[in-house]
Amino acid sequence: MAKDQKEQGSFAALWMVMALIVAIGTWMFITPEHLLKSLTGERAFVTQLSGQQADQWIFGKMISVSAGQLQGVSDAIKDTAASKDTPSPLKEWVQNRIVVTWLWGSLIVYRIYLLMLFWFILMPFTIAVAIDGYSTRMIRTFQFSSQSPIRHRIGVLISTVVMSGVAIWLVLPIPLPSVVAPLAIASIGWATWMWVSNLQKRI
């Protein structure tokens, strides 16, 4: 058992290191123009799915967060341009990395607020599903029926996979359909019902 847990921990650590290497490599070579197109495409997806008001609310929240960093971005670009010892190609690359960092962060913030918007919309559903799962579990406690450890395990695995997928979706620098957010929340609600309703009975 301990050996299996150790192997799982090593496997997870390996994946984290690989993901970090890919993220750094992407950051080094991605262009500001690509990220700007990604943000524009993301806004178009949200407008198609939820309407222009939803996009304006999310974009306004993103601007309120990202605008505070604009002065720092501008100062960093000016300091880089004023450096006399740095070669021109390196200056341009550094300036682009500064803009890339700001745009990528803005895209992540936009998706976080998109997720929050759908969370507030679907929160009654997720709460109702979780309560129903708990009620089902309590009813089964007083019945001559066994809980399913397989279904419990499936629910836990689905929750883990969905949360990992959401974490990846938040940082991917490409436009993705905004339907990912409501589907992820609905999947978490269903998985919560699955593992809560099949919690093992305690004597």
Q: Could you characterize what this model shows?
A:
By secondary structure, the chain is an all-alpha fold. The chain has one domain (31-197). It contains six helices and no strands. The two termini are 25 Å apart. The mean pLDDT is 83.
Using brief descriptors, characterize the structure shown:
mainly alpha; elongated
As a percent range, the share of helical residues equals over 70%
Distance between the termini: 25 Å
**Strand content bin:** under 5%
Q: Summarize model confidence as the mean pLDDT.
A: 83
Structural class: mainly alpha
Shape verdict: elongated
Biggest β-sheet description: none
| Overall number of structural domains | 1
Helical stretch count?
6
What is the number of beta strands?
0
Give the low-confidence spans. Answer: none
Radius of gyration: 22 Å
Question: What's the SSE pattern?
Answer: HHHHHH
Give a short synopsis of this structure:
The protein is an all-alpha fold. It has helices at about 1-30, 30-50, 50-80, 90-140, 150-170, 180-195.
Secondary structure: elements and pairs:
Elements (H helix, E strand, L loop, with lengths): L1 H28 L2 H19 L1 H31 L5 H54 L7 H23 L8 H18 L6
Helix pairs in contact: 2-3, 2-4, 3-4, 4-6, 5-6
